[in-house]
């Protein structure tokens, strides 16, 4: 273990201010220890309460994790359908669903829910979860064993499933306290009954179900902050509300060694030596094949207006320009290579008015979103992570890919407004209120009064998002 750089050795006792357990084998997951050499130190410190709850969660996970005695017992009960004595071990099973950015956000949401309800989080490995992420808890795996009895039903679970909590309520409004498992459908197409998950009263009945199987493509944490029975605990865990995903993300998501190779090699080759690193995350949801001129216009307008990139000098009279050896590295990510090529060419063809030297880099251009392909998702994960290592970040509206980068990086990004009618919006972008992700499909329901309510106007720390007027985010 002596072959690691010495800067990291001092950190072995207290990894990330105590956020990470010190009980891991280092070589199995290099990123866990080496990332400190690539990141600026976080401006935020985890609360001592969060640290102690993480350590006690790890102990619970060790007692209840896959193939422990308690796990085997509750699986038996699940198969026999008998409801006997209450076990210490209750579970949330997270189903692998949707794009990688979405998955990272929902996994963090499921973990916080598990922490709040003293459940153990188990992860459906899907096609490539084990290929992308190191085990976050010491000694016992977070992966759901593939012989889990109802794993073969996960693909069929959807809004219509009779097993869903919402549909069960429709059949039996008083609830059924003897269920062995319940399917929580928290995806974007969930209905009013499914949304009752976010009511205290429903949490009380859900509490009795040993196995909760959850499918979601949403970062639902903002709405957990509106459930009265979780309020105090969340306050203690996160005195600074905007650090929720920042800490949960840094705690849970460590790239596996192959992905860490993609990240560290790229970083060393193109980013490390620059005086400043700028991230530009371009995600275009419009149909048709880009690149689109209005998107390029918007990227440049935002970068120049916010002084993230310098203006160019078009008279080519380079003799009179200030001599400034400062370098900026611009890391662009996009499915398309076109935006990157144009920005790169601009700074090649013309000098900057400041004399700064601008290098523009884009790791991949995968053309379209692909599922079930290992290298594709490895690259996507590596790129989110690389963006998180920049000093200043520009992101695209509605993109969970960008949310992951900003949260891990502890960065308040400039968000490019979503273009309407194929025109660059004016202003092109705005600074985010906080580094938190946006919950895209929150409920608007007052559980006590049983009426609609604007959930973005109830407390000062849960607001509507900058990039989606009906979304909710923590600030
Ligand atoms: P979202 O759709 O922007 O919210 O982000 P997701 O990550 O959930 O889904 C988009 C998927 O498209 C990613 O997981 C990648 O597979 C792919 N993708 C989108 N943008 C990029 C990019 O800039 N680079 C790479 N490598 N993949 C991308």
Automatic annotation (TrEMBL):
Cited function: May be involved in cell wall biosynthesis.
- Mind listing the GO molecular function terms for this protein? galactoside 2-alpha-L-fucosyltransferase activity
The way it spans or sits in the membrane comes to:
Single-pass type II membrane protein
Subcellular location, record wording: Golgi apparatus, Golgi stack membrane
> Which EC numbers characterise this protein's activity in its record?
2.4.1.-
GO-annotated biological processes: cell wall biogenesis; cell wall organization; xyloglucan biosynthetic process
What family does this belong to? Belongs to the glycosyltransferase 37 family.
Q: List GO terms (cellular component aspect).
A: Golgi cisterna membrane
> Which protein, by its recorded name, is this?
Fucosyltransferase
Enzyme's top EC category = transferase
Q: Which Pfam families match?
A: XG_FTase (PF03254)
* Keywords of the record: Cell wall biogenesis/degradation, Glycoprotein, Glycosyltransferase, Golgi apparatus, Transferase
Gene3D superfamilies for the chain = 3.40.50.11340
